[in-house]
Design goal:
alpha+beta; nine-stranded mixed sheet; 32% helix
Length: 381
């Protein structure tokens, strides 16, 4: 009978272990360790993310029950206290690789194919640990951490992520975001209309939303198709106090595109691209929803609703492992072509994580085992 790896083993095959081992050696992460290696720590936390475990004790118990199958991935189970100490004291190691298709960095900007979304999300965790939509804490006070992400909708994956304290303004983080020239960035409305900073230049194409009280001094009205969702398309200037910085990408003429949603809400979309059509600008902002779905998957399906540790280091490690888990699911999903939803695939992986089943058969009932035939095959080698 042919050996079949577990679903967890098949997911781990997408990890670049050669690069992982190189980083471990470069940072001397396993120096003077007697118990839990960095690889075992990573595998344990990844198991927790994919299985939906809500505590270190649940992770350890689950791994101990599948200790024999961990041998095939080169990891081992650990005690809860050992895993907790590793999360609190060890420096997180970056494991970077190209996920999915080749990155579109450097490609010429063509709306709407080359849009990227920048979004931050925040959740808190108080000392009682009872709130559901929470992302972490570094003390016993009701504080939190923000995760800032640049999401490539064409590749359907994050290409940049950074964490910051919850009290840091989104504009401060946006000023340090690495910018790819010739790419349209769709910014969350919380960043408003003045990112500024050394990385943002007037020629960078940005799509975002107006604040409700932001006026526009219109100088021209552009024609819009009748009977559609586009209500108006105007060119104008923002108030001088909001665009007076020399490097502000909105210091010149800007576009205001008013669209209606399916629920009848009117959105005022701001863009500094005067060449794209109103339909392309509206479609770019609509595609920003992909990053919202990403946060939903990370926080609900991968269970970043409660942290496994209270130290800042443990919080950063868990968020990093959650992002890696998302990329691994994205890499493994093409094996199951019958499912187009990553959310449905993640649920199937969780339900069959330690079962010995091929990834392309997760959506089908398991084949009944003929025990008599199995005994005969084992007896004859």
């Amino acid at each position: 009978m042919r050996h079949q790896n577990s679903v967890f083993h098949s997911i781990l095959k997408h990890v670049p272990w050669v690069e992982f081992d190189r980083l471990v050696a470069a940072h001397k992460a396993d120096a003077r360790l007697r118990r839990l290696t960095t690889k075992s720590q990573f595998v344990a936390l990844l198991y927790g993310q994919l299985s939906g475990a809500s505590s270190l004790r649940e992770i350890v118990t689950g791994l101990q029950s599948h200790a024999m199958r961990l041998y095939h991935v080169g990891a081992m189970s650990a005690q809860r206290s050992t895993l907790a100490d590793a999360n609190a004291q060890r420096v997180p190691i970056r494991v970077c690789w190209r996920a999915g298709a080749s990155d579109d960095a450097g490609a010429p900007r063509t709306a709407p194919e080359a849009g990227r979304s920048h979004l931050s999300d925040r959740c808190d965790r108080s000392a009682s640990e009872h709130a559901e939509r929470r992302l972490g804490a570094v003390s016993h006070k009701a504080v939190g951490v923000k995760l800032h992400v640049i999401y490539a909708p064409d590749a359907d994956r994050p290409i940049y992520a950074v964490m910051s304290p919850a009290n840091v303004n989104d504009i401060t983080v946006a000023q340090a975001v690495p910018i790819t020239r010739g790419t349209t960035y769709v910014l969350t409305w919380a960043i408003t209309i003045s990112p500024g900073g050394p990385n943002w230049m007037p020629r960078d194409a940005i799509v975002t939303r107006f604040k409700s009280n932001t006026p526009l001094a219109a100088v021209a009205d552009l024609p819009v198709p009748s009977g559609g969702t586009i209500l108006s398309d105007r060119i104008g200037h923002l108030p001088r106090r909001q665009c007076q910085r020399r490097q502000n990408p909105f210091q010149g003429p800007v576009r205001e595109v008013r669209v209606t949603t399916e629920r009848g809400k009117v959105l005022r979309i701001l863009c500094n691209d005067l060449d794209a059509t109103a339909e392309e600008i509206a479609d770019l902002y609509k595609r920003r929803w992909a990053v919202e779905l990403f946060f939903r998957l990370v926080k609900q399906t991968l269970k970043i609703t409660r942290f496994l540790g209270t130290s800042e280091n443990a919080v950063r490690i868990q968020i990093a492992v959650a992002l890696i888990a998302f990329l691994l699911l994205r890499l493994a999903q093409p094996a199951l072509r019958a499912l187009a939803s990553l959310l449905a695939f993640a649920r199937l992986v969780r339900a069959n994580l330690m079962h010995r089943r091929p990834l392309d058969q997760l959506h089908r009932p398991p084949i009944p085992i003929n025990h008599r035939q199995l005994i005969l095959e084992l007896a004859h080698g």
